[in-house]
Design brief:
- The complex is a heterodimer.
- Chain A is mostly beta strands.
- Helix content of chain A is 0%, strand content 49%.
- Chain A has no helices and 11 strands.
- Chain A has strands at 5-7, 10-13, 19-24, 31-37, 44-50, 53-56, 65-68, 75-79, 88-95, 103-104, 108-112.
- Chain A is globular, with a radius of gyration of 13 Å.
- Chain B is mainly β.
- In chain B, strands 2, 4, 5, 9, 10 and 11 form a 6-stranded mixed β-sheet that branches. In chain B, strands 1-3-8-7-6 form a 5-stranded antiparallel β-sheet, with no helix packed on it.
- In chain B, strand 6 (56-59) and strand 7 (62-67) form a beta hairpin.
- Chain B is globular and about 40 Å long.
- The termini of chain B are far apart.
- Classes of the chains: A mainly beta, B mainly beta.
- At the A-B interface, strand 4, strand 5 and strand 10 of A face strand 5 and strand 10 of B.
């Protein structure tokens, strides 16, 4: 597809479980971003990749959160031992380079019961 | 501590009139400002941006004004159309990070 694709669109899990959220960026975009949007808030920065490496992971809330982008394209956000407070929409965005406009996917809505 | 503030959670405007969405920021190191529009169940979509060295940028019905001394920017939409009903996020950029406001829900009334 032409846009940023995120799967699954919805994920329901139980407290304490492990989840993986996937992002397929626009083809050729070298920069990839993860954001978290809680109810009534704007997107909150989590991590930024330039190519395969995490250029800035200062937004990850704690060590339960981890993200990878092994081949510089698809990225996976991993959350261990999920907590109810992790419930949010997780948004992925990509851009041609780090300073360009970011194009967002529709997000994954994570619900931790 | 919120660095980008949108103090109006919602705004209703008559179709055909001007919509003005406001945004304040606290960090003078921001070098670029953006507005994103979001429909339900979709990701935010880039609308318009402005560099910190400018005070106005216009694109069709959309104009963004930047007042650096007041640390304030605004988005003007004229004339407002039904399809403009959405949540609008103000955002500010510094280095590789974009900081978003909480958003303003715009309702265009028939």
């Amino acid at each position: 597809g032409a846009g940023v694709s995120q799967t699954p669109s919805n994920k329901v899990t139980e407290k304490g479980k492990y989840v993986e959220l996937r992002c397929d960026p626009i083809s050729g975009h070298t920069a990839l971003y993860w954001y978290r949007q809680s109810l009534g808030q704007g997107p909150e920065f989590l991590i930024y990749f330039q190519g395969t490496g995490a250029a800035d992971d200062s937004g990850l809330p704690n060590d339960r959160f981890f993200a990878v982008r092994p081949e510089g394209s698809v990225s996976t956000l991993k959350i261990q031992r999920t907590e109810r407070g992790d419930s949010a929409v997780y948004l992925c965005a990509s851009s041609p380079g780090g300073l360009d406009i970011q194009y967002f996917g529709a997000g994954t809505r994570l619900s931790v019961l | 501590d919120q660095q980008v503030k949108q103090n109006s959670p919602s705004l209703s405007v008559q179709e055909g009139r001007i919509s003005i969405l406001n945004c304040d920021y606290t960090n003078s190191m921001f070098d670029y400002f953006l507005w994103y529009k979001k429909y339900p169940a979709e990701g935010p979509t880039f609308l318009i941006s402005i560099s910190s060295i400018k005070d106005k940028n216009e694109d069709g019905r959309f104009t963004v004004f930047l007042n650096k001394s007041a640390k304030h920017l605004s988005l003007h939409i004229v004339p407002s159309q039904p399809g403009d009903s959405a949540v609008y996020f103000c955002a500010a950029k510094r280095d590789d990070k974009i900081i978003f406001g909480k958003g303003t829900r715009l309702h265009i009334l028939p």
